[in-house]
Amino acid sequence: MTQRLDGNSLAGPLSVIFRFDPTMAVGSCNTCGDVRPIGASIVYSSAMGAVVRCASCDNVLMTYVQTPTGIVLTTRGLTWLRIDADPEQEHRDR
Asked: pLDDT tens digits for 80-94?
């Protein structure tokens, strides 16, 4: 059964790929141009993975699929994705 959730539900699955909080990454929808954090998107989740949709126009921004051999992530619906530097990490690196 598919569940409708918000983008914050991707924090756990996407943290396997990214070494930062992926819900804080900001993206631009390539259909309507809306700009917001991934955590503010709409997610349809099932046992296989998730479809991430624009909260403004319902365009598919990303898909996340867990396979037996890995993870498949598509970002076709994003014009760009901005990942801000982690201020805590920058402080530790100095």
From this structure: 999 887 655 544 555
